[in-house]
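Posting this for the archive.
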Amino acid sequence: MTTMLSIIESKLHPDFSDLYNELKIDNLYFNSMRKAIAKLKTHQPNYIVAEFFYGYGNNYAGVNISNLDVLLYTLQKYSPDTRVVVMVDKSEYQYVDDLNKIIPLHSVLIHPVSATQMRALLS
């Protein structure tokens, strides 16, 4: 069975639960990056869907590019074959490509993301 981790950190993250059910994808939802990373240490999903937030001099600054860096480094070790789908606001799109230096992204989608776009990636 296809498995997915959805990391929902904002209200912009669309609810694709009906689509995932239709495609017979077992989806685990997390509202905390810390909890999702802990799950990765014991479970290797086929997909991860998460939003990208650039670290404009906040607590992501310095070593990290965004909220996803630690997650991607964890994937390198525990689940390197997991396909990562990133959703991003158009204003931050220019920064997402740097994540490919950590682990290749499967896809980057600009908000608003439609079920049709997601279906094309998962079918």
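The chain has one domain: 2-122. The longest helix spans residues 69-78.
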